[in-house]
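In response to reviewer comment 3 from the previous cycle, which asked for concrete evidence that the modeling workflow produces usable outputs, we include below a single protein chain processed end to end. The sequence was submitted unchanged, and the resulting C-alpha cells are shown without manual editing.
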Amino acid sequence: MASRSIKSLLVAGFSILALCFSQGVLAQQSEAEGVSKPAESKEEALDPGKLLMEHILDAHEFHFISYKSADGQEHEIAIPLPVIVYTKEKGFSVFMSSRFEHGHTTYNGFGLFEGKIKAVDDAGKELEDVKVYDLSMTRNVVQMILALAVLVWIMTSVASKYKKNGANSAPTGMQNAMEPVITFIRDEVGKSNLGHKYEKYMPYLLTVFFFILINNLFGLIPGSANVTGNIAFTAVLGVISFVVIMFSTNGHFWGHIFNPPVPGFVKPILVVVEFLSIFTKPFALIIRLFANMVAGHMIITCLIMLIFIFGGMAAAAGYGFSPLSLAFTIFIYMIEVLVAFIQAFIFTNLTAVFIGQAFEGEHHDEHAHATH
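The workflow returned the following C-alpha cells.
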C-alpha cells in the first residue's frame, strides 16, 4: 500500500543520519481465536491527510517498516505493546497488540479501527452500543516512561559524582556534558527572571527543561512517538506550570489584576484583559510547544509524500524527485534537532518569566513610585 511504502521510505531517510533502530518483532499470524477481517483486493490510494494523522497520533505499537516477501505476503516489523481495555460486559481484558495483526484481524471481541480499539461481534463488525475504556500502554505512554527513566538515570549519575568528588573537582563524563547546560539554565533562566528566589524554582525548571528535551530527541528516532507533539502531554505540562505560577502570586499581583493603576473608564476593560491573561499564559506554553513539534514532523512526512505524488503522475518524475526530497528531509531533520533544544529552552524560560511576574510586581511598583 502507498501509505505503508511512504512510512518505510521515511524510516529509510532517517536512517541516513545513523540513528539506531530498536529491535523489532515480526507480527504473528492470527491464532485460532482471532477473526480475520476481509482482505482488500486493491491497493489503497494515497491519502496524505490520513497518513499525516497516522504519523502524528498515538498508536498501540512501535512500527518501523513494512515489506513484502518473495511470495507477495506483507510483513510488518514492529514492537507490540500491552492492550488493557475494560467493558461492562467483559470487565478487564489484557493482551498484546500483535493479536490485531496491525488492524487486519480482531481478537477476543475487540478490533482496531483507525488506531482505536472497539468492541466487535463474531463477524468482526463494530458494536456501537458497547463502550470500550482503553487503558492501554500506548507508544506515547511507553516512550514517556522511558524518557523519565533516562532523565532519572542521568541526574542521579551526575549527582552521585558530585557527592563522591565534590563540586571543586573537574567534572568528567556525563557530569562534564550536563554541567554547562545546568549552569546555562541557572544563569540565563533562573537568575535573570527570578532574582534572589531562583534557587527555590531551579529543581522544577531543570526538570521541565530536560524532560521536554529528552522527549523531543526521542521523537526524532525512526519509529518512535512524537510525545511532545501530543496536545495532552503539553497540556499537562502547561497545567503544572499554571499551578506553580498561581502558588507564586501575592496580594500585590492580584491587586494589579482586579484594580490596575489606570483611569477609571479604562479599568473595566483592563480588568477583563488582565484576568484572561492568567489563563492565556499557560495556554501559550501548551500551544507553542505542541505546534512547533508537530510542524516539523508534518513537513518531513510531506516531503516524503511528494515522491509518491510525483510518482503517481509519472514514474520518472517520482524517481527524479527522490534525491531532492531526501536532501530536504535530511536538512529539516537537522533543523528539528536544533528545534528540540530551542523549544525546551523557550518553554522553561517563559515559565520562569511568568513566575517572576507573579511575585516581582511589588518590587517593580516600589521602584516606579521611588522614581516619581
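The chain has a mean pLDDT of 79. We consider this sufficient to address the reviewer's concern, and the full set will be provided in the supplementary archive.
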